Amino acid sequence: MKQVILIIFVFINFWHISHAREPLIFVTSAYEPYVIEEGSVITGIFPDIVKAVFHELNIQAEFRIQPWKRGETTVKSGEAFATFPYLTTDQRAEDFNFSDPVIFFFPKFYYKKERFPNGFSWENLTDFQQYTIGGVRGYWYKKSLQAADLNVNYVTTDIQNIHKIMEERIDFTLLPELVGRILIQKVYPHQSSAFAFAKKPESTNTFHLMVSKKYPHAKELTEKFNNGLRIIKGNEIYQKIFQQYKVPIEYETAQ
Fold first, then answer.
1. Given 197, 214, 243, which residue is the final one in a domain?
2. Which residues contact 93 (CB under 8 A, 6 or more apart)?
3. How far from chain centre, in Å, is Cα 209?
4. Is it the case that residue 145 has pLDDT exceeding 90?
5. What one-character-per-residue DSSP string does 175-233 give?
6. Are 234 and 150 in a shared domain?
7. Are residues 53 and 67 in the same domain?
8. CB–CB of 145/173 below 8 Å?
9. Pick from 178, 197, 181: nearest CA to 189
């Protein structure tokens, strides 16, 4: 009997040790410079911050690339701990939890310089009513642009809208400033200077981990992430990651 109990005890402890060593699963999609996919290697501002946080906690983070909608389904079902980078919304909060803010988000209105040779400035979204905006289906701005009664043509990717700006089929498109610069450089490497953006952001928000409500110990792991985020801000690993990707200091969130 004692031998049986001992065997069960050893098995349980072995299971816990093995389970503790299992990597924490994240899903995401390429979104430079936030998420960079180079073959099987996933880097970028957000993955590097996540890795740094969980390294401090002696937890291995594993990243898997999935399309955004599929990734949301994977997290919602509890097959993965979290996805990133995501803005918080009331609708998303019904199905997911969120970490503390990780990085700021400043979307800007991009345009073609030839179309607005003197630049463009704006105060209210209604200032765009006489123009055509290029939007992407499922993005954060649909309700606000609709409320301002703007003329928005929706497509499925940001790259489509960059082409449409160059071809003057639309006047503006909304892109996170960091993402827009990289995409334009990739799509038009020899004509990137043909583009500009209005200095005022469409909104000011923050990106977070979007966390599963069904993943084992998700609440505890989210608290550990939040604490770890404060740790890497305190020891300046967080700041070094921003410097590595040449991200301005105004994108850093407070401790």
1. 197
2. none
3. 8
4. yes
5. EEHHHHHHHHHHH-TTTGGGEEE-SS-S--EEEEEEEESSSTTHHHHHHHHHHHHHHHH
6. no
7. yes
8. no
9. 181
Alpha-carbon distance of 242 to 26, in angstroms, equals 21
- Structural domain of residue 245, as residue ranges? 2-103+206-251
Same domain, yes or no: 28 and 70 = yes
Question: Looking at the 3D structure of the chain, how many domains does it have?
Answer: 2
Q: Are 98 and 130 within one domain?
A: no
Alpha-helical regions (H) of 100-149: 142-147
Shared domain for 67 and 123, answered yes or no, is: no
Q: Give the model confidence (pLDDT) of 112-124 as tens digits.
A: 999 999 999 999 9
CA 232 to chain CA mean position, Å:
19
Could you tell me if 6 and 99 lie in one domain? yes
30 and 64 together in one domain: yes
- The crossing angle, in degrees rounded to 10, of helices 45-56 and 218-234 is 100
Structure confidence by residue, pLDDT tens digits, 171-189? 999 999 999 999 999 999 9
The alpha carbon dihedral of 121, 126, 129, 133 has a sign of positive
* Residue 235 dihedral angles phi and psi, to the nearest 5°: -95, 5
Please, are residues 166 and 112 in contact by the beta-carbon 8 Å criterion? yes
CA atoms lying within 13 Å on the CB side of residue 232: 24
The pLDDT of residue 16 is above 80: no
CATH number of the domain to which 237 belongs:
3.40.190.10
Report yes or no: 141 and 83 within 8 Å, Cβ to Cβ: no
The answer to whether the predicted template modeling score (pTM) of the entire model surpasses 0.70 is: yes
Q: Are residues 98 and 112 in the same domain?
A: no
